[in-house]
Design goal:
By secondary structure, the protein is α/β, with parallel strands linked by helices. Helix content is 41%, strand content 16%. Strand 2, helix 2 and strand 3 form a beta-alpha-beta unit. Helix 3 runs parallel beside helix 4.
Length: 393
């Protein structure tokens, strides 16, 4: 029986992992070995390991690696602790193939620890661009350390092959998080309101702001965002920032805003069911979360994207960009996004990040790829261009 390991480090990657976890667990020829780490074990991040267990998964191992500080030094030391922790985990739990999703810095620990064990690494979401975050470098580093690549769209496959990856290793699958949009049951508006403990008075705003780690002033951007929201009626549902450098101060300022503004709430983690239920009833999303780029289009949800964090990422027509931290510009963008004519123009919007059937495609490759030296021993592809990567059906 082939063992498939999955390492998840935060709520941000768990949504994409979940459909794959379910597909692996349901296959009688595969054995799932799930490792939960970093943000999943942190009370400040919602201790989402409990949500993983509530979803019915057995956790094979845990790696606690986040420090209480969020300085660059603390993040770097956390990566080191994570490398030690994952090395110990792989001594106990050594899968035939190991899957990771995304571009979180914690995943560098996974890749570094897996390398000397010769564990083939499968990476989801390579080839994308986010120039406003050091996640950009993490993602590309993971590409070079991985042996299989599952990407969202053909242009991402092109980039991965241009980085020297052999085309046979690359499969266009779409993002597996979009499988949940199709499959996950949703709460009614009343059920969601009860879960949030707040009436959903329109306009309902989903707000997420993460620290900008490459360019831009995160506190100035957050100030512009909260100033625009302070003058807007309705309900604001903030989700907590990631555990990136500067995240503690960003979270403190968000808490202060929520405390001062009537009709605003803050959640460390909503869980996938409540989060997608919220996207289904929301009137607009604001902030700088990747969710606005690759999940919101599936809901036809208008998004106001602030600053540089998502610069370079492919956008659908639902995104209104505000490059600079100007409260008036943010407020104007929110008004545009809330215009019924703008929302009406998004009907039937196709999500460029996938069609909601990524997990079966990913699991098919994980199950069928030939293990052994040819998979682990990588060769640099010097071909003229990406003409032979696989388009999964």
């Amino acid at each position: 029986m082939r063992t498939i390991g999955v390492a998840t480090v935060a709520r941000s990657d768990y949504g994409s992992c979940l459909p794959v976890l379910r597909a692996v667990a349901a296959d009688p020829e595969l054995e799932l070995r799930l490792i939960a780490a970093a943000g999943h074990l942190s009370p400040a991040q919602g201790e989402t390991v409990r949500a993983i267990e509530a979803d019915g998964f057995t956790i094979a191992d845990r790696v606690d690696m986040l420090l209480s500080a969020d300085t660059p030094g603390a993040v770097a030391r956390g990566i080191g602790l994570g490398t030690i922790g994952f090395a110990q985990a792989f001594e106990r739990v050594r899968p035939d193939v190991l899957l990771v999703v995304g571009d979180r810095f914690e995943l560098l620990s996974v890749a570094c620890a897996a390398l000397p064990f010769g564990i083939p690494l499968a990476h989801v979401s390579g080839g994308e661009i986010t120039e406003g975050a050091f996640d950009e470098q993490v993602r590309h580093a993971l590409t070079k350390m991985s042996h299989l690549h599952f990407v969202a769209m053909p242009e991402c496959a092109d980039r991965v092959v241009r980085m020297g990856e052999e085309p046979w290793r690359v499969t266009v699958t779409g993002d597996p998080a979009l499988d949940l949009v199709r499959l996950l049951p949703r709460l009614s508006r009343d059920e969601l309101s009860a879960r949030l403990g707040a009436p959903l008075v329109p306009p309902v705003v989903v707000a997420t702001y993460h620290p900008v780690t490459r360019g831009g002033d995160p506190l100035a951007e957050l100030a512009a965002l909260t100033a625009a929201l302070a003058g807007l009626g309705g309900t604001v549902v903030f989700t907590a920032p990631n555990a990136d450098p500067g995240g503690i101060e960003v979270a403190r300022r968000i808490r202060a805003f929520v405390t001062a503004r009537s009709g605003a709430v803050l959640y460390p983690s909503l869980g996938q069911e409540a989060y997608y239920s919220l996207l289904a009833v929301a009137d607009v999303m604001v902030g700088n979360s990747s969710s606005g780029i690759w999940e919101a289009p599936s809901f036809g949800l208008p998004v106001v994207n602030l600053g540089a964090r998502q610069r370079g990422r492919h956008r659908a027509a639902n995104v209104v960009d505000v490059p600079e931290p100007d409260p008036a510009a943010v407020a104007a963008a929110v008004r545009r996004a809330l215009d019924p004519r703008f929302r009406a123009g998004l009907r039937g919007l196709a999500n460029p990040y996938g069609d909601g059937t990524a997990a079966p495609r990913i699991v098919h490759v994980l199950k069928s790829v030939r293990l052994g030296p040819d998979l682990v021993r990588k060769r640099f592809h010097d071909g003229p261009g990406p003409t032979h990567w696989r388009q999964s059906t």
